[in-house]
Amino acid sequence: MTAEILQIHPTHPQPRLIRRAASFLHEGAVIAYPTDSSYAFGCLVGDKAAQDRIRAIRQLDERHHFTLVCRDLSELGIYAKVENSAYRMIKALTPGPYTFLLKATREVPRRLQNPKRKIVGLRIPDHPVTQALLAELGEPLMSLTAMLPGRSEALGDAEALERDLRHGLDLIIDSGSCGIEPTTVVDLSGTDPEVVRLGKGPLSDWIAG
After folding, report:
1. Domain range enclosing 55
2. Does some domain include residue 47?
3. Residue 190 in this model has a pLDDT that exceeds 90
4. Considering the domain boundaries, does residue 204 fall inside one?
5. pLDDT digits (tens, 9 = 90+) for 154-181
6. Which of 18, 31, 155, 184 could make a disulfide contact with 146, Cβ separation 3.0–4.6 Å?
7. What span, in angstroms and rounded, lies between the C-alpha atoms of 143 and 16?
């Protein structure tokens, strides 16, 4: 298996190519796509076989949880229980390079939740290609950061993906470089926001220190 490469314009994605990428996903594909922080691996939420393939590519066990990548706040509300204070924060910071840990609703498959805390990671990225793909799909993507096993640095361009992972993926969306800085991760499942990882997204207006 060798991945197909789709060269999609980073700011004005071609609709016919977005439709082709969506058709891959509907057929059970594992893809690599650009976000506002780095490239990511993605598949459809209900596709356990594709999810298992992504775990195998990253060499991760079931304790490492996926993130649901959503188009907007209306989708986010389907999969997470969002209190008013958390909603204000998410609304102000999205779309953007943030991942929010929230209490999961019953719409989230158990295999995507933290088994002890019943939380799920969600994010709304600010990238035209991702937004166009999510709009075409009409549903979120199940996603993990694109990186090689044992590495701590994400892959930020399609050339690296083609070189190292072309035979493990079905599709690579080439939209040029998008950086390698990880998202900022904020736990909003408790009483107060807690920064789990400080990454690309600034938080100075929301969390002191």
Report:
1. 4-197
2. yes
3. no
4. no
5. 999 999 899 988 889 999 999 999 989 9
6. 155
7. 23
Q: How many structural domains comprise the chain?
A: 1
CATH number reported for the structural domain that contains residue 139 in this entry: 3.90.870.10
Q: What is the spatial distance between Cα 146 and Cα 161, in angstroms, rounded to a whole number? A: 8
Q: Are strands 31-34 and 171-174 parallel, antiparallel or unpaired?
A: parallel
61 has pLDDT over 90: no
169 found inside a domain: yes
In a domain, 141, yes or no: yes
Q: For the beta carbon of residue 55, count every other beta carbon within 10 angstroms.
A: 16
User: Which residue spans within the chain are E strands per DSSP?
Assistant: 4-7, 31-34, 39-44, 67-69, 80-81, 98-104, 119-123, 141-145, 171-174, 184-187, 194-197
Query: Are the C-beta atoms of 96 and 36 separated by less than 8 Å?
Result: yes
Q: Where are the beta strands (DSSP E) in 51-174?
A: 67-69, 80-81, 98-104, 119-123, 141-145, 171-174
